[in-house]
Specification:
There is one protein chain. The chain has 16 helices and no strands. The protein is globular and about 60 Å long.
Length: 342
């Protein structure tokens, strides 16, 4: 059964949609903040910032399925060469090679040990795991396209719910190590269904959708702010408390709606701020690489203790956060400077 295609979807299916870049710009800023601030739980970060990676993957799904991808039309050569290697893996490996050289110079560890430590987490620097999840999604999404098209939407919903829960339970039963858990896509599986849904259905925050979002929000709070043992139903990982399928209704419906609403508000009152977030969205992958390199280097040369010792706890911490944000987002604010003037 074909999924009914109504308009309008949340994002444009044809042509460039600036709102997508705006959402990505917000998300990459929250990624940087998460990596430079020790504890954001007190400001309810799980509600507005922690799901940033989930939203990046949701947008990835939307981009693939808005083209009405079919398996017989998939250009696997282009996916491997351009989408995966040239755009993502190649620049990531270049940054990783530079970081390993820096660590070899600064620490008396053999190359083999450095490579082993990097491979354990998917790479040096925070968020390196994301690259490998992205690659898995890039390979999996075209394969699932014909299945999603043929299944009844309700059947598809329950199938993905079942598969998502099975994945969580199997991870627990098999006692998968945390580093393997973070490198695999299974915790994000339900986002594939939601991304496909967003690409084929109108986005209307109906009372039912709002109620489902609020219920999902409560589960997100439960996962984030309780220490109850969840095994074997849900895999406990301190860095991925918002990455369980019950949380994704809130992320894909209400949170995404609020992000897009923020775009509309900023468009009305301050176009420059909106434009900067859109630029950050366009440069989000370069910002991701920048912050990954920056925080890896700061592990070698800690800057925060020096700032605190000279400026005090509060001012030193504030200077550290501001400097980290400025340096990490440099690809965005440097782009206008590098463009030739007309």
């Amino acid at each position: 059964m074909n999924w009914p295609a109504y308009k309008p979807c949340l994002f444009l299916k044809n042509g460039y949609d600036e709102r997508i870049d705006f959402v990505k710009g917000l998300c990459i800023l929250f990624v940087v903040l998460n990596h430079c601030i020790d504890d954001l739980q007190g400001v309810l970060f799980p509600l507005w910032g922690a799901p940033a990676v989930s939203l990046f993957l949701l947008i990835q799904v939307f981009h693939v399925y808005k083209k009405e991808t079919t398996l017989d039309r998939v250009n696997w050569k282009a996916i491997f060469r351009h989408t995966i290697f040239q755009r993502v893996v190649k620049p990531f490996l270049i940054v990783q090679a530079l970081l390993i050289v820096i660590w070899l110079v600064c620490y008396d560890l053999p190359l083999g040990e450095q490579l082993k430590l990097a491979a354990y987490k998917g790479g040096k620097g925070p968020g390196a795991y994301y690259i490998w999840v992205y690659v898995q999604f890039a390979l999996l999404l075209p394969i699932l396209a014909p299945i999603l098209k043929k299944l009844n939407p309700v059947v598809c919903l329950f199938a993905f719910l079942f598969l998502s829960q099975m994945a969580e339970t199997l991870m627990c039963v098999l006692n998968i190590p945390p580093n393997i858990y973070q490198l695999t896509f299974f915790r994000y599986l339900f986002l594939i269904f939601l991304g496909y849904w967003l690409s084929t259905r109108p986005f209307v925050l109906t009372p039912m959708a709002l109620a489902l979002s609020l219920l999902s929000l409560l589960t997100l709070l439960f996962f984030s702010y309780t220490d109850l043992p969840l095994r074997p139903l849900f895999y406990n990982h301190p860095h991925f408390t918002t990455c369980h399928w019950p949380c994704y209704f809130y992320v894909a419906l209400l949170l995404l709606f609020l992000y897009v609403k923020a775009y509309s508000v900023l468009s009305t009152y301050t176009a420059k701020v909106k434009g900067f977030f859109c630029t950050m969205g366009k440069e989000s992958f370069n910002i991701f690489l920048s912050q990954m390199a920056l925080f890896s280097i700061l592990d070698i040369f800690p800057m925060r203790p020096w700032l605190i010792s000279h400026a005090g706890e509060l001012l030193g911490s504030m200077f550290y956060i501001v400097l980290c944000v400025i340096l990490s987002t440099s690809p965005a604010w440097m782009m206008p400077l590098l463009k030739p003037r007309k």
